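Exercise 3.2. Students should predict the tertiary structure of the chain below and write it as structure tokens, then compare their answer with the key that follows.

Predict this chain's 3D structure.
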Amino acid sequence: MNKQGLLTYALVFLLIFATSVRSETFLRLDEVAVGEIDPAKGYDYADSVLAFNLYDTLVLPRQGGTGYAPHLAESWTSNGTSYTFKLRDNIKFRSGNPLRAEDVVYSLERMQALDAGLSYLFEAVSAKAIDETKVVFQLDEPYGPFVASLIRLPIVDKVLVEKNNGSDTWGETFLGTSSAGSGAYSIVSHDPNKETVMAKWDGYFLGVSEAAPDKVSMRYGLDSATVRQLIAEGKHDIASQWLPPEVIKSMLDDGAQLLTEKSGSFYFKMNTAKAPLDDVNCRLALANAFDYETAIHMIAINDDISAGLPSTGAIPLGMYGANPPQDILTQDISKAKQYLEACKYDVDDMNIEISWIAEVPLEERFAVLMQYNFDQLGIKSEIKKISWASYEEQVSKPENTPHISQIVSWSVTGDPDTLLWGMYHSSTPGTWQSPERLNDKLVDQYLEAGRKAADETGRIAAYQKLNSRLMELAATIYGFDRQSIFVASNRVRVPALSDPGKAFGVDAMGFTFRLMGMVEYTAGDID
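Answer key:
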């Protein structure tokens, strides 16, 4: 070989070598809660991110718009209580097994049998496979949000699960450590208390961009100081939504980028089963005493952006039944004092327990603000720090439930039914969502009407009435509508969390990894 040939050979070799070095990109992010990868058991934010990437569903929320678009299904029809879905042809699970109507039926029956996670969405539903690509869902009664609920029915590979179910009827052990979906990512390793590692699947039926991360690590329970340091060192890419405002601001000052997602609401839940909050006038006094404007300023990042947006009532803006944007809630001490005078309890005997969750230090600030507001009425209060696990245990009994609990909640399907039913229907008391233990016939009536209404007009009317009734009962102080804020390195591009025209109307869907892009760097550059 002559010198020219050797030079050409060397250049080709170097080009191949350079390409191979940069071939694998790695996205790292974190969340507060532990991660659940069994699609029938997950319900939290971290669980949702995992499910949306490991599994597919019949429909997806429409990106950059409203409503729901076909996904695994190519079309569907309905007569009100029966829904027939036609599946796309030739979709395969990562195992190579074909995705069939029978897998859809199995996924529904498995979720119902395990009775965990979001199974309550499918309590009155049955399914039947007509052929390989057609499945019929039969509802016991009309359920307006049914199509929306299907984004929470991940389809699992029946053949693979049954092959690996061992002594478990429904393969719980297998799906607690492995994935059996058709999603764009699969499980590499999973420690629910530490880290879940996922890898991109090039065989995904919609294709996956070369720019999407090749591997993803979701870590759990990192403190804010650690996250800040890791991002600064190039060892982390997206921080969870739970960082304190001052940490977010300092990271932005250091050159990080900001990602946002409209994300449910922040609630101060009042235990209506324990004195003095079993008196509606006492609850109305506290609701009017709360300083809504200051709460939003407390979580502002700068003059232009805050993690909170003004609340207009019980239903967040953008959902059926929401009050107009101009009807924002404000503090009214004069009105609060009037309600307190009408309360049957003596103010001198009151001592309100205000709890905050240890894993979310920001809540302590709201507890202090609330204590100051109550002091303006002459009401004594006590602030208590509890872990999330302790909170879930305490709310199971009314006498153990704090007078006031702080939670964030959102609609898991983008529909008001899945935000409000679990909070306020009398059949669902004593969960982390429903520490109020509300039991009101009109509330039940309006919630049920919102489910059963045959058209959008009927649903809007039902939720408007529900909104008014909930404000009358004042079982909850509607602190603010949340805007989740994520600080990210400049190594990642997330259009669904940075461009409103590409946003989804469902929390955590913006973390669909196949829609992200990585600025090229190698996995070897990251410890």
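Discussion points: Confidence is low (pLDDT under 50) at residues 10-15, 521-527. The two ends are 42 Å apart (CA to CA).
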